[in-house]
Amino acid sequence: MATLRVRLTLALVGLVLLLGILHVGSTWITTEAYIREVNQKLNLDLAEKIADETSLIRAGSVDSAALEHLFHSLMVINPSIELYLLDPEGRILAFSAPAGKVQLESVSLEPIQKFLEVAGELPILGDNPRNPDRGKVFSAAPIKPDGESVEGYLYIVLGGDLYDSAAERLAASYILRLSLWTGIAAVVVAVVAGLFIFGRLTRRLWALHRKVTRFESLQLGTRGPVAETGDEIGRLESTFDGLVDRVEAYLEETENLHRERRELVSSVSHDLRTPIAALSGYLETLQLKEESLSPEERREYVEIAHRHSERLAGLVDELFELTRLDAADVELSPEPFSISELVQDNVQRFQLQAEQQGVELLGHTPESLPPVLADIRLIERALVNLIENAIRFTPSGGRVEVGVAMESGLIEISVRDTGHGISSTELPRIFDRFYRGRSAKTDDRGSGLGLAIAHRIVELHGGRIAVESREGEGSRFSFSLAAVEAAAAG
Question: Cβ(213)–Cβ(240) under 8 Å?
Answer without folding.
Answer: no
